[in-house]
Every structure is written in structure tokens, then in C-alpha cells.
Amino acid sequence: MGDSAGESKLAGQFFDAAIGLLQQVRDGDSAEIARAGAAIAEAVADGNRLFAFGAGHSSLAAQDVVYRAGGLALMNLLVVPGVVGVDVMPATLGSALERVDGLAGAVLDSSPAKAGDVLIIISLSGRNALPVEMAMNARALGLTVIGVTSVAYATETKSRHVSGTYLKDHCDIVLDSRIAVGDAELTHEGIEAPFAPASTVVTSALMQATLAAAAEDLVRRGIEPPLLRSGNVDGGHEWNGRVMTEYGDRIFYRH
């Protein structure tokens, strides 16, 4: 029950928890965010490509930076069939596929990703075979790998990859979301399970902050960031058409 009609105590507690986590990543990850932004800017400047990958709910933050107003037009979603969202039936199949050995290598081998490109891999736990192998294979191909994960899982859970390692162990840059194991910020008397996950809020913020840092770095290099405008504002479609034409060889979600 809330303290008064129309007010929820638990809702307020969730906002407080999310704000606290955002402050932690803003302060604690600032140097790594800058490094990640510089790596993305360098790839753009050198004519290379950008990819983002996440499985399950971690895919939400990856999708959030692909083909959207205010985002970099060059960011492409690296899709692994069956693990992108809850549209797969049964939903539990997506979780099972994250543990399949060899799937990441097959996906990368059939993707347009190549040496010099940047791949952002989002995995809250970083313990399943799919994100671990994705990072290992990507680095072997010569990609720069940015991992977005909760480092806490590496000390409080057991890896599900045969190597015993985690996503964080195979990245050039690691952004720590600082989400507690279990991804649930609240507990309450009368509710047996913890609830109110904040990983999507925090991870999406990390992604947007990183792309903001990339835009800043591109300007410093004298390069206009290839950003998309909203199609719901006057001139937006025309602007986006020009950007997509100029960078068409590095945009794969149109084909």
C-alpha cells in the first residue's frame, strides 16, 4: 500500500534504486565509457562498421541503439535467431539457445562483421556460452569488443562456458552495469520473490552515454557524426535518406 491515495511507496523505491545505479555507472564507468566512445569513433572514421548484440532481455539495449532518432545510423543489430526477444515460442527456448556451444561462431562467420569493426556485446550475467564465445570469436576475427555486463556475476556465479570464463574476460573494454546478481531491486513483506529489475534502464543508459561519447569524439576529429533524425519532424526523412545514402555500405538493416 502507498502512503496515500495515488502514491506508491514501492514505485518511489524503484526510482531511487535506478537513480542510484545510474549515478554509480556515471561515476564509476566514466573512463571506460570514454574509451568505448573513442573506439566507436575510430571505427567510423576508418570506414569500419558497428554492431550490437544481446540475448533475451539484454537484446533490448542493443535494439535501442539501432535505427532510431538521435542514434548513429551505422549501428547494426547482430541477430542470433531465437534469442533476440520473447517472440520465440516457447520463450524458454531463447534461454536454452544461450547455452549452445558453437552458435556464436556460426553467426559471426555468416555475418558481415570483419577485422576493424566494433561489436558491443550485452549480457547481464556474462556467464552463458553464447556471449562468451561471441566475444572470443569476434576478437579472433580482429574486431574490437566492448562488453556491457555486471561484473558481480563473475564473482558470485559459475560460468556456463567450458572455459570457466565470462564475457568480461574476452573484451577490449568492459562497461560494468553494477547490477546485483538476480536483477531485482526490491523486496517487500508478503512478496516471496524479489522484483523490479533495473538492468534494462541502466544498460540502455550506458549504451546511450557511450554513443554520446562517440559523437563527441567524432566532432573532435572533425567528422560530422552520422546521426538519424526523427521521421516525425519536418525534414527528418530527407535527412535520414542522405545519411543512409552516404553510409549505405555500412548499414545492413536495410537489406
UniProtKB/TrEMBL annotation:
Superkingdom field: Bacteria
Gene3D superfamilies assigned: Glucose-6-phosphate isomerase like protein, domain 1
Domain SIS per the UniProt entry, residue ranges: 40-223
Cited InterPro entries: RpiR-like_SIS, SIS_dom, SIS_dom_sf, SIS_GmhA/DiaA_subfam, UPF0309
Family: Belongs to the UPF0309 family.
Protein name as it appears in the record: UPF0309 protein OG814_17285
Lineage: Bacteria, Bacillati, Actinomycetota, Actinomycetes, Kitasatosporales
